[in-house]
Write a structure and sequence with these properties.
The structure holds two protein chains of two kinds. In chain A, strands 6-7-8-3-9-10 form a six-stranded mixed beta sheet, sandwiched between helices. Chain A has one domain: Rossmann fold (3-Layer(aba) Sandwich). The two termini of chain A are 34 Å apart. Helices cover 31% and strands 26% of the residues of chain A. Chain A is of the alpha/beta class. Chain A has seven helices and ten strands. In chain A, helix 4 packs across helix 5 and helix 5 runs parallel beside helix 6. Chain B is an alpha+beta fold. Chain B has two domains: 174 residues, no CATH class; 175 residues, no CATH class. Chain B contains 15 helices and twelve strands. In chain B, the strands form two sheets. In chain B, strands 1, 3, 4, 5, 6, 7, 8, 9, 11 and 12 form a ten-stranded mixed beta sheet that branches. A two-stranded antiparallel ribbon of chain B has the order 2-10. Chain B is elongated and about 95 Å long. Classes of the chains: A alpha/beta, B alpha+beta. Chains A and B meet through helix 1 and helix 2 of A and helix 1, helix 12 and helix 15 of B. The complex binds adenosine-5'-triphosphate and magnesium ion.
Amino acid sequence: MECSNSSAKGVEKSHVVELISVFKSYQRGSQIIPVLEDISFRIQEGDFLALMGPSGSGKSTLLNLIAGIDHADKGTILVNGVDISSLNESGLASWRSVNVGLIFQFYNLIPVLTAFENVELPLLLTGLSARRRKEQVETVLSLLNLSDRIDHFPSQLSGGQQQRVAIARAMVTDPAILVADEPTGDLDRTSAAEILSFMGRLVKEFGKTIIMVTHDPKAAENAHRIIHLEKGVLLNPGQQKI
Amino acid sequence: MFYLKLSFRNAFRHPLRAVLTITGVAVAILAFGLLRTLVGLWYLGVETSSSTRLVTRSSISLVFSLPVSYRERIRQIPGVKEVSMMNWFGGIYVSEKNFFPNFAVEPKTFLALYPEFIVDEGEKKSFLNDRRGAAAGSKLAAKHGWKVGDRIVLKGTIFPGEWDFVLRAIYRGAQRSTDESQFFFHWDYLNESLRKTVPRRADQVGIYMVGVDTPEKAPEVAQAIDATFRNSLAETMSETEKAFQLSFVAMTEAIMIAIKIVSYVVIVIIMVVAANTMAMTARERIAEYATMKALGFRWSHVAVTVFAESLLIALLGGTIGVLLTFPAANLLEKELSQFFPVFIISTETIYFQFAAAALVGIVASVFPVYRASTINIAEGLRRVG
Ligand SMILES: Nc1ncnc2c1ncn2[C@@H]1O[C@H](COP(=O)(O)OP(=O)(O)OP(=O)(O)O)[C@@H](O)[C@H]1O
Ligand SMILES: [Mg+2]
């Protein structure tokens, strides 16, 4: 697999994600519920960021904005210099397919597809030949020690294995950033440690930038930096690793 | 290709649900096909009627007869090629449940006018030469195990008494749709007996069948026949065989329309059932569709997957339904041979069955396709767990 980062600009690390004064609210009936208020922060390339905060504080919402899954009400979100808040629905879809890898708490694998097919999924949107896709999928799966599980369906895999398949799926298109919403939230200690060590390797060995939401302070310890969200407000945007 | 694979696997994800839905569609398509065929067969007499044959009957009603003397006068009318005559006999063979149509006809002209009844030359000769001879359709003969030379007794209802016949010919139909369950015998035999027993009923003819040179001349000849007997004691009404058959069918038209409506209702019901199943399915998979969209798939990709799944189930059920129609038709042909001597599934019906199945699939997919393609990704993703 090619793991060079197309956005890398020389040795000096640039900001791969930049949020400037982002607001987000939901409407429930006639009521407008503010979820994120005036969020500004930057993430450097190769950073491993943990996003913590109580339930309902807006962590998932913030992650979705960075991943281009949801739209902000106000403010600018720059990813690799692209203002994704200016993209339309289909523009965002193509942007997501090459620029972000998504990892979810409940893995979100397609149950009727095998591990191989699940990982191949994002590659179907690229122009790659079947042979190239196969090579790429097999490389990523072996990287995650899943070579012997290639033809297994999600229901035939443990939670930790499923999450590894999901990570393979997230990185198979070689995106610059990975966003993970409580990736270890549904796993036991051992599996969680395994997943976290993989994520650490992705940052260290492949130069990926990871933004991870977690409740677990143990998990957050793997990150370079932790930011706290409380009631939609960022408590320590600039704070480095504690 | 990938989307087809995904649709296929999704379709059989809940095997029981898939099998039940497919069975439902199959049964509906089967019922639809049989009901449509039934209606079609009811009109078969109309469709297979000849355009060069006229039927002349009493202008008052079919139950009134015409004098036998009309035969020669009709023959004189320009454009008339052949005239034959027939009386509905209404005889019963052994028991009433053996019902089959039986007629007294003028055999020579009758066989000339109705080339669709194919009779072997030798049998034809012996039938024509024996005044007590009779001809039966091959299906009828087979049903009762009759062979040429057998003695057959019919109990008269309109013409009382026991009537003795000798089976001289067994006819085959020129087409699959030709009725092979009829019974014909000599009009002269009937008439001579009546002369001796009830002279007042002798020399009467139920209908005349008139062959014309060309179809274009038919209306003209019909008018000429009726004009000939205007202001006589027995006025006539002449019409094409098609119109004549239609007048029979018209009596039961309302029932046929009802059957037709029922056939459509069956399709509508399965449509609603399939739509509900598909909607349920889509609801369960919202998170998966949201995931696919989050990965960068377009709404159209998701829509195609959902649509193909629905169409697949419906067409599979439809195909099974169509395949079942043939054995079912054979069974019905055996069981209902008295009412429907032939039970043929037309190609048109098969097309209609497939079209109905496809329609079920398309309609059932409308809501799920809409749901799947318009889901908000962020909201869809919240549904996991
Ligand atoms: N579609 C929506 N409509 C209305 N309110 C919403 C919607 N999505 C999220 N919210 C609200 O926004 C707030 C933040 O939700 P979010 O999912 O971002 O929290 P979270 O920090 O991820 O919580 P958790 O740790 O439980 O996952 C919550 O109060 C939630 O109820
Ligand atoms: Mg959350």
